[in-house]
């Protein structure tokens, strides 16, 4: 091996040293080089994440936009899709099955449930693929991987916004008065957003570690849909006792209840339900983020 | 970058890369004839680990252009990904003077979206700020030479056009270390010339260029030093003509 380039002897030197890591580290320090890869400290990671936030926002909103762009009506589908879903669910559950027992404004009740549940359910199922479904992006560019679950939730949130407009219109049509409490919907959705992001972090890493977890997620989401009172009043069906308490206090049931109480005059919740909603949001987000960050150095390997 | 003249821009120290792959398992010679169990392992538990880079060490200087050669599967692309920090190393360390960018923004792009939107998305993915993106958007589109196609979705582009756009976006960030994986093979003669100019420009600004190519003429033209990789190991490191000659000899 010839050594014409001035750097080549350094290679030899480094390679021959038994403690080569120290030699390379010293050489790197001498030339002002920094080591790349591995898991950065939490503070550095958060800072990096904040600096790159525009990418996550753009990636998420672009995905939501691209979803509708492949048709003639294009972005009109952002509004048409929720309208059609509302029609289907009202027909099935309001006209055919009549699950409206114990509910005053069933149309409003049902549509709020369907839209808010869809937001979290899609965040979870897309979040599960946030790492494994983006291997080409991960293996070619270096960025804090937490941006990927964030982008997933951003995309679902962008899809939720026109749904909320449809929701407000529908609730007005069904005769609900416009009240100041409507603003609480933003708080409720905000808490639900944080919760969904936390879950997206958890499932993104879990599926990256063990792919098979991804195969289980549809079942969890389906079960969650039936126990959270999307189509019917959970209070009416859950009954009393411990099981009833657990059903009515699962995070999705809480967020649906908060959303309904904000928009519908006939539904009200106590402060305890708000406390539950805030608690679930904070605990899930912080726990989920720490869990995801802890696996940061592994994500490029799948 | 205080000592940009003689300073090192990159140290690759005994780097190993392993990755896990789902969907199949290798049948090695020493595992004997296929048994019922080994056949089953192709369908259930079909996970395997590939040791793609096995202890590579080299250093690079500011302004240097290095070609990576070797047969398919020798670990060249994986090594670049490890240097870019995109693929975690299983052992060893990589030290760089600044941003190391792989000419591989394609993972961030969406074929349903217009070229212009993809420029924004890709540039943000590379770490540019929104202000820098606004500043450079027109220049990137012009360099890519996609003209009126900028408003059409990328799926309508010819393969040459999308390759040009990817090159234009990837080099817009002016990274300290630019890594190119077989990108110059695409594009027409005029674009090849322009991309060569862009690479020279990056080198002049004290950047380092790493180029993977199977075209020995491209390597000879663009690089002054070459690394020959074989089965995940570094076989030879030296001036480009010397290494390319011995590589070609081994192929004959």
Key phrases:
heterodimer, A: 302 residues, mainly alpha, 2 domains, 14 helices, 1% strand, disordered N terminus, B: alpha/beta, Rossmann fold, 6-stranded mixed β-sheet, 3-stranded antiparallel β-sheet
Question: Which descriptor suits the 3D outline of chain B?
Answer: globular
N-to-C CA distance of chain A: 35 Å
Termini separation of chain B = 43 Å
Give a count of the beta strands of chain B, DSSP E runs of length 2 or more: 9
The strands making up the biggest β-sheet of chain B line up spatially as 5-6-7-3-8-9
| Biggest chain contact | A-B, 53 and 63 residues
| Beta-strand content estimate of chain A | under 5%
CATH T-level fold name of the largest domain in chain B? Rossmann fold
Task: Characterize the main sheet of chain B.
Answer: 6 strands, mixed
Largest sheet of chain A: none
Structural class of chain B: alpha/beta
